[in-house]
Amino acid sequence: METIEIIGLIAATCTTTAFVPQVYKALKEKSTADISFTMYLVLFVGLILWLIYGIQYDSLAIILANAITAILVLIMLILKIKHK
Amino acid sequence: METIEIIGLIAATCTTTAFVPQVYKALKEKSTADISFTMYLVLFVGLILWLIYGIQYDSLAIILANAITAILVLIMLILKIKHK
């Protein structure tokens, strides 16, 4: 595998797993007051569109990365609604 | 332009601009207690790697989207450090 493809894989892993500590923090502290609902809503729409893009191009990397991130972002949206 | 490319452009616009309302909220309310520093740090590393990926492939879309998002994420990191 080329170096640049490895960099791409690490990049995808970072931008996907980044949301795990945020979900963990929100679940543990039961507080999301400082979190922007609009951010997570727009992000969710964007990730679903990336998912469609990935499906169209049969790109497992794009599909996987965006599906996992979309689930984490959806959890944040649900927590934000619950904490209102 | 093909429909799928338009979907990709809207997707990129969403996942980039999503961070604007979060930065605005953090600047306005001067509170980032519920924000995970780890999330933004890992995200920043990922975005810089995507930027390198985009530069390597000469993809203006990947470069632009990730550069803008990286700046917004960096602002969140600075605010998080400032509010400590």
TrEMBL record, chains A, B:
Keyword terms, alphabetized: Membrane, Transmembrane, Transmembrane helix
Membrane-spanning ranges: 6-24, 36-53, 59-79
Entry keyword annotation includes Membrane: yes
Places the protein is found: Membrane
Primary location class: membrane
Listed InterPro entries: PQ-loop_rpt, SemiSWEET
Gene3D superfamilies linked: 1.20.1280.290
Bilayer topology: Multi-pass membrane protein
Name assigned to this protein: SemiSWEET transporter
Origin species: Croceitalea rosinachiae
Lineage: Bacteria, Pseudomonadati, Bacteroidota, Flavobacteriia, Flavobacteriales
